[in-house]
């Protein structure tokens, strides 16, 4: 059996550690030996294997993933979810109802392993997810946009990026982000694309992170200038996530700086699934 898990974009601008979006780019974590040359055995230190063993998984595990590592697209969260789902499948089989019933429990384990819940919640549940207090709720979406991901060649350390953020922020900035987060959830539910650019503004983390990744700042500005609905630093970066109309995705991708490559994706609505190997 194979756990198939979507990549993710976290924060979505103002939703620091609370909002995540699943993307149509998938890691696979399988039981046993690799099924082909695309899979690689996971050793005891691989995050997928650590998660697998945490839930009592036994035996060999392999991983196949096109998700860029260290780029803010949820690689570590996706393979950790994959390890947990693989352990669940080993014990309970591929029944999707049993997996659905276990998602909240799996979220708790994944959040502890990852250190924050936004990426893993999106990879587990699919769609756009709000998470806090060990719970996750999918946000109703009235739009089905394209997601253009601008991926540069350099990487970002999540731990170092988080360590650079201040321990205290002004109350006005907190209120700013609370308002933008509420506005973003409402805009997604209402399908109000005209609000999305304002709703994805942030004062808690993006400016500090973009100051250390000037090519990402240029890509974000170029996306908005090209007519994107919204753009944000994906997770801790350096990838920039761009939300736009499906029929405008290729033109917007072409307008982004050429010192990075683009992936035109969609929002994944299924989350983690179990498939026959």
Give your account of this protein's structure.
This protein is an alpha+beta fold and about 280 residues long. It folds into 2 domains: about 1-140 and about 270-275, Ribosomal Protein S5, domain 2, CATH 3.30.230; about 145-265, GHMP kinase, C-terminal domain (Alpha-Beta Plaits), CATH 3.30.70. It has helices spanning about 45-55, 75-90, 95-115, 120-125, 160-165, 170-190, 195-200, 205-210, 215-225, 250-255; strands at about 1-10, 20-30, 40, 60-65, 130, 135-140, 145-150, 230-235, 240-245, 260-265, 275. Helix 1 (about 45-55) runs parallel beside helix 2 (about 75-90), helix 2 (about 75-90) packs across helix 3 (about 95-115) and helix 3 (about 95-115) runs antiparallel to helix 4. The model has no long low-confidence stretch (mean pLDDT about 95).
| CATH C-level of the largest domain | Alpha Beta
How many E strands? 11
CATH architecture type of the largest domain: 2-Layer Sandwich
Rg, alpha carbons: 18 Å
Largest sheet: 7 strands, antiparallel
Overall structural class, as computed from helix and strand content, comes to alpha+beta
What are the salient characteristics of this protein?
10 helices; Ribosomal Protein S5, domain 2; four-stranded antiparallel beta sheet; 277 residues; alpha+beta
């Amino acid at each position: 059996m194979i756990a198939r898990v979507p990549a993710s974009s976290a924060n979505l601008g103002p939703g620091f550690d609370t909002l995540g979006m699943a993307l149509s780019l998938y890691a696979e974590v399988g039981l046993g030996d690799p099924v082909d040359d695309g899979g690689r055995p996971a050793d005891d230190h691989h995050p997928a294997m650590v998660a697998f063993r945490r839930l009592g998984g036994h035996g060999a595990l392999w991983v196949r993933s096109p998700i860029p590592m260290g780029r803010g697209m949820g690689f570590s969260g996706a393979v950790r979810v994959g390890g947990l789902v693989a352990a669940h499948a080993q014990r309970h089989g591929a029944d999707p109802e049993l997996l659905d019933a276990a998602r909240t429990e799996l979220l708790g384990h994944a959040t502890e392993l990852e250190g924050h819940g936004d990426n893993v919640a999106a990879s587990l549940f699919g769609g756009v997810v709000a998470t806090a207090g060990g719970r996750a709720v999918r946000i109703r979406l009235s739009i089905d946009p394209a997601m253009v991901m601008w991926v540069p060649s350099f990487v970002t350390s999540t731990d170092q990026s988080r360590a650079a953020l201040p321990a205290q922020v002004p109350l006005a900035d907190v209120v700013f982000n609370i308002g933008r987060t509420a506005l973003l959830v409402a805009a997604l539910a209402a399908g109000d694309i005209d609000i999305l650019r304002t709703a994805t503004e942030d004062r808690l983390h993006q400016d500090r992170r973009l100051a250390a990744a000037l090519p990402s700042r240029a890509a974000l500005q170029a996306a908005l200038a090209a007519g994107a609905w919204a753009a944000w630093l994906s997770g801790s970066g350096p990838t920039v996530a761009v939300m736009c109309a499906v029929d405008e995705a290729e033109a917007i991708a072409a307008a982004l700086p050429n010192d990075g490559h683009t992936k035109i994706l969609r929002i994944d609505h299924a989350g983690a699934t179990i498939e026959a190997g």
